Structure formats: structure tokens, C-alpha cells
TrEMBL record:
Official protein name in the record: PLD-like domain-containing protein
Domain Helicase C-terminal: 431-577
Any one cellular-component term (Gene Ontology): cytosol
A Pfam family the protein falls into: PLDc_2
GO molecular function, one term: hydrolase activity
InterPro entries assigned: DUF3427, DUF8090, Helicase/UvrB_N, Helicase_ATP-bd, Helicase_C-like, Helicase_Restrict-Modif_Enz, P-loop_NTPase, PLD-like_dom
Provenance organism: Pseudolactococcus chungangensis CAU 28 = DSM 22330
Keywords from the UniProt entry: DNA damage, SOS response
One GO term (biological process): SOS response
Xref: PANTHER family: ATP-DEPENDENT HELICASE IRC3-RELATED (PTHR47396:SF1), TYPE I RESTRICTION ENZYME ECOKI R PROTEIN (PTHR47396)
Residue intervals of the Helicase ATP-binding domain: 228-380
Amino acid sequence: MKLIESAIKKAFIDYKLETSQSHQHRLITNNQEQHLFAQNALQDELDTCTDFFISVAFVTQSGLCFLKTHFADLASKGIRGRLITSDYLGFNHPDVFRSLLEIRNIDVRIVEKEGFHVKGYLFEQKGYHSLIIGSSNLTANALKKNIEWNVRLTSLENGEVLRESKKELEKLWNESLPLTENWVERYAKSWQEPNREKIVPNIEDEGAIYSIARPNTMQEKALENLAKLRSDGKGKGLVISATGTGKTYLSAFDVQQVNPSKMLFIVHREQILKSALKTFKKVLGGAGEDFGILSGNSKDISAKYLFATVQTISKPEILELFSKNAFDYILIDEVHKAGAVSYHKVIDYFTPKFLMGMTATPERTDNFNIFELFDYNIAYEIRLQEALQEDLLCPFHYFGVTDYEKDGVVIEETTNFENLVAEERVNFIIEKIQYYGVSRYKIRGLVFCSRKEEAKQLSEIFNNRGFYTAYLSGEDSIIKREQVVEALENGELDYIFTVDIFNEGIDIPSVNQIIMLRSTQSSIIFVQQLGRGLRKHDSKDYVTIIDFIGNYKNNYMIPMALSGDMSYNKDSLRKDTFDTNYITGISSINFEAIAKERIFKAIDDVKLDSMKSIKDAYSKLKNRLNRVPLLVDFIEQKSIDPYLIVSGKVSNIKTYYDFLVKNRDAQGEISELENKYLMFISRELLTGIRKQDILLLSEMVKGREFTRKEIKDLFQNNGLDAQEKTIDSVLNTLDLDFFSGETSKTYSGAELIEVGENIRLSVGMKKALLNNSYFKILLGDLLSASFIKSETFDKSRVFTLYQKYRRGDVIRLLNWDKQQIAQNIGGYIRKDNEFPIFITLEKGEAFSGAMMAYEDELLSTNLLKWYTKAPRNMRSPEVKAILNYDNADLNMHIFIKKSDDEGTDFYYLGEVEPLLDSIKELHKPTNDGKTKSVVEMHLKFIEAIDYKLYKYLISSK
């Protein structure tokens, strides 16, 4: 009752009041900038409900896709729900009703009345009900894209609004018809495509027919950049463009603006030629004889626009048919393959006025530097996320689903072949792909398997189950591949099963379902395979991606590939798994609960800060930049997090200089002391947790000396905390006086500043800056990178919500004068009115950090159950301080990590206040068979925890 009352007061009396997030009344809208959508509200309600009742006039398949994994998770818990929809105005496509029949834990009924326009979502939660009423139907646009208003209300069982809502829903339910296959068939026979503009003008139409009559936004920018390259005298240009964004059309538009006397278009597969030639004809027009093919039996070498396979044109006898300057303009498609000998023969032979390369994946694993081939002239680059944002690709719904499990054994890399094609697994796969479905219900799918034998046998088994499928491998001829692809396009096949082809270089625009029955070997291949369905086509509204996630060690690559986040930062990968709102448009990323846990486990287990990972990222960036990268480059190019390089976890690598020396790329030498300066800054400042340290040191490196008054002015002028104790802490940090124990020994002699009447650089630092220009470059780069990292922290607060901190960071940011040893801090430490608490939620069976089991638990987004250290009782100093909370001005900060697998950093979840009536003394058993006293209490968060982070933290392993 109290929680409901406080929610009402906050919503209707005073917005400044605190209340439980789970009980809160609020307005729900779609906010593209903040990545907050109505779909999130529904997903959150479904994840915690014990029953649900949805009543909406309009439903689309794409709208259902947002919720299908949540329905599946509810089904696994035995939870059912109800849904009422309608045949009003014929808006709902027959395929929508077929899709609803596949969701076995929802009972569906149909209102056959004119004017049914309800949009309501009712959820029974533990101890209360929530009701979302407003303008959003169950469509993708309404839940993520349109301007919509919905209100969330919460109520106890006897609330009048709830009782009236339930009464109306039950009345509608009793007056409606059950959804059955017979009803769907009758509806389908009489259904006609409605005039959607009369229903909701320009809003609900999710199926658009796409036409490229002129350059799209990506192509316009690329064309402008290509023209500028040529005007600057450059003879080469590289376009990096996500699959499906219209690279072939772009090349045709560029040829149109250049108007060469003769052009050569090179591809690596014959089936691409005809498609490319057709595109160029559309754009360029002109006589048919202007366009020719050089491949196999076709030798139209006199054509103005010649389309050739690299296999044919690279033959010496063919090259001799052309002069070296025969072509003004040469284009190479899928240019990442240009490391092959055949390509080099062609590129080395011809001397065109302009050479253009196009690829979706310039980062290769074969050590070939594509960037160097094009003189590092990147004309344009657009990756998956940007392409979706620009509406250049077909929307997709990705489903990370749990792969088959039997007797506790899950599919993994070493699974026996017999288990991959076992009848039970095939049944499981078919059930999942039918559940998650396809756009418009007609399948045109690609299935990527882990082994050739698996693909071949699964194709045969599917055919025996009533599907129409074919199997293709790299051993099949071009002619056979073309025939099979054409059969899929024509609707004669449901699926093509394959292993090592279709990753790239094939265009099947009508593909509407991608099934992944293999582990993710690289983020490049993952995006290539996903990209097979992203080309827009008038036969589909979206593409379904169904990824069967087993116990694969490379599962961590899935969020990396989907988000495009290549920082190798584990916290970023975890966030990209539990919060997938980074995907734009009406696309969605959805994980079943168990599949999500398998990804978290892979992230915990993988060593992303290994020398191999760092070297790979470094080499790619060096190839791209044509120089030794700076730390700033890693951040700006969205590569590996530079802190991983210098964190000290890689053997004998204390600084970026050490790494460069090891790779023989150091461009100068620095002394041991100079390297120690860099080590200190790398480990303590590069995280960016406090901008004041970085700002002051950066100004002093320029040659300035400061008085305390000038430091205060510097901080205030930059909007930073400038209290005297903060200034003291910054100075104690930079002159190393803060550090103690082994850390003090490690940094000894590397004092950056001297503190006296004036604050100045230490003698060693001054000397290093004066005498070693290379040290100065490394230092400047390190400080610049630290500045960029500091921008992710809230400078108005001591701690930034949901950022991660080490225990030592927390002590320093609280402006304490001396570092505390982590082991001595343990679960918490108190000084004056500051009380930071560190909690590891999952301590594991082998946890040896304490004599007893501390059962700390996040009870909700607002509430934490917490135990003091042992032995403690009601008279212990910290407990007495907590009991006197109302008068003590105590700041209790909560830092939490899920398990020790996450390392030594803790998420900052905010401040809490104790619920004084919950404080009690207990006696708990210890490992030696005795008992010790401990105090248990509930702590209430002043600001509710972000729900998605809360769900991640409480999810079991």
C-alpha cells in the first residue's frame, strides 16, 4: 500500500518525491535520441509478470517480433496470457494471425465489431498490477518509431481503474471469437489489402516498395567525396559500405559523373556480372552494345562498359588484348579479395585515370592491407549501424535463441555429428524457426551450418519433413549455384543449407530469414552472413535472423558484431547484451534468457586483453592509418580500449611505449624514469574517472606553475568541483603521497609534481619534457586519450551512475588522504560521513574471501538486502552510525559486481538509505562449524537502478 501511495503522490502531487520504479506511474513515449521506446516498457513488464492481458486493434508481424523471446521465456516458466485483437478495416494481415497461432502460451480472440480501437496492456505483477493505456498498437512503428503517448498506471487488486479495466477486458473476451486455423483461412479468403492511408496516414505501413531512382543519402555523400578526391589529384579511392546499401548503384552513379571513354568493372564471381551490368544500364542508359561481358565464352572486349571476372581478365593472353591505358576508370567489387595473385596481375598491368574499390569488410585476417592499395584514400565509409539509421537497409529482427540441450549437454564446437542431426535437435530447430517466423509468411531462407556433412544431411531431413531445400558448398559449380539461388528467388525452395559460401559476393534480395547453426568465428563473418538478408525488396518488410546459441567460446563476438563495438571492453559487451537499444529504426535485437546467459559466460571466460588480441587490433589500425597509431587513434577509430594495452595485465607491458618496443615500432627511446611517469598516468588517469587530475597536469605540462587559488579557478572555469579537499586529493595523487603499500613502491620516484607555495612539475618531469621530444609526444597522447575517456563521466557528481570503479578509485575520489589496501577494505570502509560498500553478488561455491556466506541480494531496482562484516552487532561503530542515519549525514554508496569473473571493478549503483526497522542482529554459521554475529538490513536506493542493469546483475549463471 505504501509503495502505491508514494507512486500516486509522485505522479500527481510532487515529482520530486522518491518512489519505487516498479510501482511508478509515468508517461511512455518513443525517444530516438535517448534510445527509450514503448517496446522497452512492454518487455520489462513481461519479464516480471505472472499473467498478462493485451487488447489492441492492430498487430503486425514486426511488432510481435519485439516480444517473441519474452513470450518464449514466459512459456518456459509456465506463464500464459491472453490477447484480443480484431479484423477492423482489414488492417491485420492474415499472416499475423498465423504467427499468433505459433505462440502457444497466448490465447487469442478476435473482435468482429466495427470501431474496435483499443490499445491496452494489463500485467499482473507480484503484489500489484500494471496497466499501459494509450495510442500504441502492437506494431513495430508504434512501439519504437512513431510519436506515441502511453500512460503506465499501477494498482492494487481493489483499485477502481483496474477493476473497471479488467471488467471491460473480460466483457470483450467473452464477446469475441477464439482464433483458430479455420478462422484464419476464412479471413484470408476474404481479406483484401487495405488502403492504409485511410486507417492511419503514413504511420502504420511497414511494408514499403523500395525504388532507387536517384542517389540515396549515402551515395550522394560518397559521390561528393569521390569527386573531391579526383579534383585533389588522387587516382584511387576506397568505399567501405555495409552490404545492401547500394555499392553497385554508387559505382554506376560515379561512372555517370566521370563519363569515362571506357570503363572496366571487375568481380570475383560470374553470377554478379549480370546483376551489375543491369544496374549500370538503368543508371547510364545508352545503346545495348555499349555494355559487354568478359567471362567464360563471352568476350565483348570492345564494349565501352566492360564487366569482367577476375579469373578471366587476369589471364596473360586476355591482358595482352588491352593496352595498359585502355580504361579510364576501373572498379573492383569486393576489393578485400585483392590480395590474391589474380587481382595483382590486373592492378599492376593497367594504368587507369581512376581506380575505385568497394567493400563492406576492409579488415582482413590474411595480412593484406587494402588501405595501402588505395593510398589510404577512403572516399566514404558507412557501417551497419549508420546504414540502418539512414534507412538504407531492410529492418531486421535478430533472435538469439537457446540451442538444443539434452540431459544437460548443450551443442558446442566439439559436438558429435550424430547429435547435430539427431531427430530431437531437428524437431527443436523446426519448432524455433516456425515460432520466430518470417515476414509475410513465405520462407526464403539461408541456413549457415558448422560442417558440410551437417548442412547436407539437414537439407535431406528438412525435405523429408515437407520443406523444399537444397544444399550448396564451395565444391558446387557456378552454374549449379545460380540455378539453386534462382529457385529460391522464384519461391521454389524454402531454404538453402550451406557452410562456406554466401558469406559475401552473392545478391539474393528476397531472402527473409537467416538461420545460424554454427558458432561465431569472427565478427566480420557474422555481419557478412547477417547482411545476406539486409537488401531491401518489395517481397518483405523485414528479415528474421535466428541464431542458435550453444556453449560456444566465441559467443562474446555476437554483441561485438551487432553493436559494432570493437573496444574489447568486457563491460561494453555485457551492456550490449542486456541493453540492445543501440540498434536503430524498427530493427530489434532479442535474446532468450538462457542464450543471454551463455553470452555472459563467454564474456567472463574469454581473455580479451591478451597480447594476441591487442596485436591484432593494433595491426588493423596501423594498416588503416599508414602510421604507428596513437592511443587517441584507438578511441577515435572505435578500436580496442587503450586501457587494455597499458593495464599491466599483459606480461612486461607497463605502458604503450613498452608495447611499441615489443612490436619494434617505437619511434624513439625513453628512460626508465620517463616510462614510469607514463605507467603511473596510464594506470591512474587514463580511465578518466576524475577530470581534475588530467586537466591540472595537462596545463602544467605546457609550462605553467600554479598557486592553490589558481588551481581553484582552473577547476571552476571548467565546471569542475573545486573544494579544498578535492584540490588536496588531486595534489596528493600527482605527487604520489596518496599511494601506500606495494602501489607506492611501484610508483616510487615517479612524482609528477612538487607541492610547495607554488605547485610545479617535478624536476624529473621538467627534464624529461625538455630533453626528450618522443617522451613529450607519448605523454601528450596519453593525456589526450585520458581527456576523451573523462567525457563519459558526469563531472557534476563524484561518482557516475553505472560506471565502474576499483576500490582504490573510490577512496581517491572521496578525497581521502591515503590509499587503503583492497584486502583491508573488503566489503566496506567508513570514514567520517562517507561509507562506500562493495558487494560481489555471486560469490561462488569456492569463495574463500570470508569465513561465512554473505547472502547480499538485490531485491528490486529500489531495494538491497545487505550484511555487515562479522563479527558485528548492534553496538558496532558502523552499525551505530547507520542506526543514527537520520542525524549522522551519512553518505552510503553502493558498488556492485555480479561475480569475481568480472574482475576488480564494481558498478556504481548510487546512494542508499537504511530502512531502520529492518536492521537486526543474526548469528550465522562459519566455515569452522561455529557461529558469528552479523547485522542484516535493507537499504533503499535514492535513485532506482536502471532496470536492464538490474536484470543483468540478478540473472543467475
